[in-house]
Specification:
With 1052 residues, the chain is mainly beta. 2% of the residues lie in helices and 44% in strands. Strands 1, 67, 70, 72, 73 and 74 form a six-stranded mixed beta sheet that branches.
Length: 1052
């Protein structure tokens, strides 16, 4: 609780203003209250039992929920308040039908009457990320508590009521109808904002820089992308949107012409000759198989292959079913619409009989037993070795609420469907036959126990359909390698604290990709989110990047906001080290925004090792499909599998390289490969930060030296110590050169440390901005920026009042520009504002406040006073050396206006005149008009006017002489009266009257209704007034003596 006390008007102002609250790393936290209501409650209608009240509150940065404040307007009893996930990107709230898997925290509240209630959620540690919104919900009970609504409506709409039972006639008659609340719900959330800057991006969009663009230079759109080294040079190439991009030795890509149809593709060495052949998926008998001769030539062997898939091909996966050295083909088929009805198609398994000739073995392999007619719709098939027996199994994530399928490879050419027995089928719903809308899947060891786990990406709606639909799942193997049992990681402790995987329930969740992006030894997760609308046409549907933890009890942590990675509507992503610097980049495919390649500049915990397998045994496949790899380093074991084509959804394909982050391990103790058929090889002497080929005969070779990679200080670091360690990883045994380039003082020479051995150097640097990189015999690292000490903000610029303005109101707003920084990032800038007058410099007021923009509403200033001041910006301990200057003068009372009509001496004036006067400077509180029959104004009547005219009522007396005058008002006080004007009313009343003596041959003046003179002529009649003067005007004509002889309102 804070308190204030009245203070006298000030001559000196000193304050700190904190603007922006966005940070990169936890620093100085701040407590804030997120709200939309205006604090004034309106009448709230009663709701039926079981209805929901929900409010969606926006966020701009990560925060931790501490408390929820709720104003209850009626009802008593226990209320269950829930914090839930924002499933639909703020468009609609989730409902009670998904509480079982979308509740982040809940608390019971005892409500005894009307008023505010505080609910403490601090023990739940609910962390919301910068791309999230806060959703607060409760279910109304008969006679139970209702939330208050404010009295000024909603814009935008974020407060909702939900009837969970009534069929919706506007949407398939499914149960449940959303209604807008009349006003904003009076629900507020107290949050801890633990950051004071938003960092520079660390997932860098390099799409255009590396050349992954269309022939017209514009971004490409595609939901699917394939990554493969089709020319065998050790660099992964890219196929997308009907175009083929060859990797130019890690420097970028160049478009090449291949004689292949422009469609999604699945690559594999089908004929086992050491190069990648390709299956082009076009569906309905149009799929094609092309053979690569290894010399850049492709030939169409579709007819000879005998593969004919008369169905909508979705995912094609290469695997070696019987480990005979020939790649077989699994095809997951989707759906089509025939005569207005959906038709589903059976998935197919094609066995390679040698010579790239195939036989459909869907039925004899018993795969067909797992997909009875009328079959399933499929969007997310993947390969695995779920029981680590060295044989490739098949997983199919099905759509339209069908059960997911897991087919165990029996090793004899047959498969057994084991999804129910293993738990891979999904989690139970209210309808036993319904599960999820599978959009993608991925396999990997998410908790470091050596057992492969399953992630399933499920699209799922937050309305009543949620009760029989799975969200995205993290199915951990909670049993053994040989007899797995997959269990969704989602539970609530006895104290009500959520224990879960951290992968958010989003309505449009889609494909998946796992990789150790930060080299801490744990797998991280990219999860796509599709959109039916193009970017900018509706709600943003961003993909999310989650970092895993080496602590298996901790959930995945969403770092999308911190990393700066944004892509809308992406279905799939493919991992690959496209620049060969030892870390994995992400190529994300969106058909509603564009394909984007994000270079990985995340802070790293250590080096990595990248492995390509080669099985040279007779009768085995060169690619080593079916192998499992275990890397031993630093007392830890890291497990990877290569079952065949690696896909996270639809027809996307990832690199075949196996990548392992080594955390803090300085050496690789060994790499053990479990080859198909039971052969095991153990490889030692493998250096960290290397790209090697491991061969089934126990040998290894370096494929190529990797470019150095920076580890720390991280890209965009601020507050770096003057003496700090620079750490990198390099595969070169020769010394390296560390280059540090000063940017704060461009004339300063580059700081070079030559012949450095190892991966670390301690450097002393003065405060300032620097770029740094490492150069070795194998190339150079990317250049990263850092700031030693806290960065100094640029000098702000005063925007209002203008410098030397002499007519500033005594109640005014001081505005200035946001300070910029020399290093990328969005910083919390503090501003010190000092203001004083020339009269005295004795401080009469000191104010400390927090605002969300670069402005300050000043208390009432003294009129007619010159003020001076300054604005100085700071970030943490760094402050601008100079200040932006403030200089202005407050206005005094307004000068007297000029009486226009009735003019002095006017006669024959209507008894209902509209008084007109000129507009003097510095009037901002209206006018006063005084009319009296006495020249002394001793019996006057004073009226108020908002502008420079006033129609007088009740009517004046006819045939009488009156005096009138006007004056302006402002915050400084009351201005001077105008010179009094005398006029005489007509003997009779009328709208248009001619008066005065003699013909109207004098000057004619035209005024608008505010009293502003529009036109004047020395000797022109009324009919000569220019036609361009339009609208309602007052035309005043005079005789030769200058007296008013006519005054009339005209609509021109």
């Amino acid at each position: 609780m804070t308190s204030t006390k009245p203070v006298a008007p000030f001559r000196w102002l000193f304050l700190w203003l904190i603007v922006g609250c966005i940070v990169s790393t936890p620093a100085i936290g701040s407590i804030d209250t997120v709200r939309k209501d205006n604090g004034t409650a309106a009448a709230t209608p009663a709701l039926n039992d079981g209805w929901e009240e929900s409010v969606i509150l926006p966020l701009t940065e990560p925060c931790i929920v501490r408390k929820v404040l709720i104003y209850y307007t009626s009802g008593t009893g226990t209320d269950v308040v829930r914090i839930t996930g924002d499933a639909s990107e703020g468009t609609i709230p989730p409902t009670q039908y998904c509480f079982s898997y979308n509740t982040l925290a809940e608390a019971d509240v005892k409500v005894t009457g009307k008023g505010w209630v505080e609910v403490d959620f601090s023990a739940h540690n609910v962390m919301l990320d910068g791309t999230d919104r806060i959703v607060i919900q409760h279910v109304v009970r008969s006679g139970g508590p209702l939330w208050g609504q404010d009295n000024n409506g909603q814009s935008p709409i974020t407060s909702f009521q939900y009837d969970p039972v009534t069929p919706n006639p506007n949407f398939l008659n499914i149960p449940g109808i959303y209604y807008q609340a009349r006003g904003d719900y009076m629900v507020r959330v107290v949050v801890d904002r633990p950051f004071d800057m938003r960092p520079a991006a660390t997932m860098i969009d390099v799409t255009a820089a590396v050349g992954l663009l269309g022939a017209d230079g514009k971004p490409l759109r595609s939901d699917q992308v394939s990554v493969v080294d089709w020319n065998g040079d050790g660099y992964d190439d890219v196929c997308l949107a009907g175009r083929f991009f060859q990797n130019d030795s890690g420097r970028g890509f160049r478009a090449v012409s291949l004689p292949l149809p422009g469609a999604p593709s699945a690559w594999g060495d089908v004929d086992n000759d050491g190069d990648a052949d390709v299956f082009i998926t076009q569906g309905f008998g149009n799929d094609q198989l092309w053979r690569n001769d290894g010399k850049g030539l492709f030939s169409n062997v579709t007819a000879d292959s005998k593969i004919i898939n008369n169905a909508p091909t979705v995912t094609a996966l290469w695997l070696d079913i019987e480990q005979d050295g020939d790649l077989d083909l699994f095809i997951a088929n989707g759906r089509s619409t025939v005569n207005g009805s959906e038709v589903y198609y059976q998935d197919k398994l094609w066995r390679n009989d040698g010579g790239m000739v195939f036989t459909d073995v869907t039925v004899p392999s018993k795969l067909a037993l797992g997909e009875p007619a009328p079959y399933y719709d499929t969007w997310g098939a993947s390969l695995c070795d779920y029981n680590s027996d060295g044989r490739t199994d098949i997983f199919v994530a099905t759509y339209r609420l069908a059960p997911d399928r897991l087919y165990r490879n029996n090793g004899d050419g047959t498969f057994t469907e084991v999804s129910s027995a293993t738990g891979a089928i999904g989690i139970p719903t209210t309808q036993p036959q319904y599960f999820g809308h599978g959009m993608g899947s991925e396999w990997g060891d998410v908790n470091g126990d050596g057992l492969v786990d399953l992630l399933v990406g499920n699209l799922g709606h937050p309305d009543s359909r949620a009760q029989y639909s799975n969200p995205s799942l993290v199915l951990r193997n909670t049993a053994t390698a040989s007899s797995p049992r997959f269990t969704n990681w989602y539970d609530v402790s006895s104290s009500g604290v959520l224990d879960w995987h951290g992968i958010k329930f989003k309505e449009m969740n889609a494909g998946l990709c796992m990789a150790d992006m930060d080299h801490d030894g744990s797998l991280d997760v990219w999860h796509g989110q599709i959109s039916y609308e193009s970017f900018g046409a509706g709600a943003n549907r961003p993909s999310h990047l989650y970092l895993g933890s080496t602590d298996p009890t901790k959930p995945f942590r969403d770092v999308t906001w911190q990393s700066g990675m944004f892509i809308h509507g992406a279905w799939t992503a493919a991992r690959g080290d496209f620049d060969r610097d030892g870390d994995l980049d992400l190529l994300c495919a969106s058909g509603t925004e564009s394909v984007k390649l994000f270079r990985n500049d995340l802070p790293k915990n250590g080096a990595s090792v990248t492995v390509r397998l080669r099985d040279t045994r007779a009768g085995k496949h060169l690619s080593g499909y079916g192998a499992r790899m275990v890397v031993a380093a630093g007392q830890k074991r890291y497990h990877r599998w290569l079952p065949g084509t690696v896909s996270g959804g639809r027809m996307s394909q990832m690199t075949q390289d196996l990548h392992v982050g080594l955390s803090a391990a300085a050496t690789v103790d060994s790499i053990t490969v479990y080859w198909p058929g039971g052969v095991v090889t153990k490889h030692t002497g493998i250096a960290p930060h290397s790209y090697v080929e491991l061969v089934s005969d126990g040998t290894s070779r370096l494929i190529m030296p990797l470019r150095p990679v920076n580890l720390r200080p991280a890209r965009g670091s601020v507050g770096v110590a003057s003496t700090d360690d620079f750490v990198w990883a390099t595969s070169s045994a020769s010394p390296v050169r560390l280059e540090i380039t000063p940017r704060s003082t461009p004339s300063s020479p580059v700081i070079i440390r030559e012949n450095l051995t190892g991966w670390r150097a301690t450097i002393d640097l003065p405060p300032g901005l620097y770029d740094w990189k490492v150069v070795s015999a194998s190339g150079e690292s990317d250049k990263w920026s850092l700031h030693v000490g806290d960065p100094v903000p640029a000098l702000p610029r005063v925007l209002q009042p203008a410098l030397s303005d002499t007519s500033v109101p005594t109640a005014t707003v001081l505005r200035w520009s946001s300070s910029t920084y020399s290093i990328p990032g969005a910083f919390t800038t503090s501003y010190r504002v000092r203001l004083w007058s020339m009269a005295t410099k004795t401080p009469l007021m000191v104010v400390d406040t927090v605002v969300s923009d670069t402005s300050l509403t000043l208390p009432t200033l003294t009129a007619s006073t010159q003020f001076f001041g300054s604005i100085r910006a700071s970030y943490r301990s760094a402050m601008t050396s100079d200040s932006a200057l403030v200089s202005f003068r407050t206005y005094g009372v307004p000068p007297s206006p000029l009486a226009v009509f009735p003019a002095d001496g006017a006669t024959g004036v209507t008894t209902r005149p509209r008084f007109q006067w000129t507009r003097p400077a510095a009037v901002d509180k209206g006018y006063e008009i005084e009319v009296d029959s006495l020249a002394s104004f001793g019996t006057s009547t004073v009226r108020k006017a908002g502008d420079t005219s006033l129609a007088w009522t009740p009517p004046l007396k006819a045939g009488r002489t009156y005096y009138w005058r006007a004056r302006g008002l402002n915050l400084a006080g009351t201005g001077q009266w105008s010179t009094a004007a005398m006029f005489t009313t007509a003997g009779t009343t009328g709208v248009h009257e001619n008066f005065g003596e003699g013909p109207c041959t004098g000057r004619t003046d035209v005024y608008d209704l505010t009293g502003r003179l529009l036109w004047s002529s020395a000797d022109v009649s009324v009919t000569g007034v220019p036609l361009e003067l339009s609208g309602l005007v007052l035309v005043v004509t005079r005789n030769a003596a200058g007296h008013v002889c006519s005054s009339q309102l005209q609509l021109r």
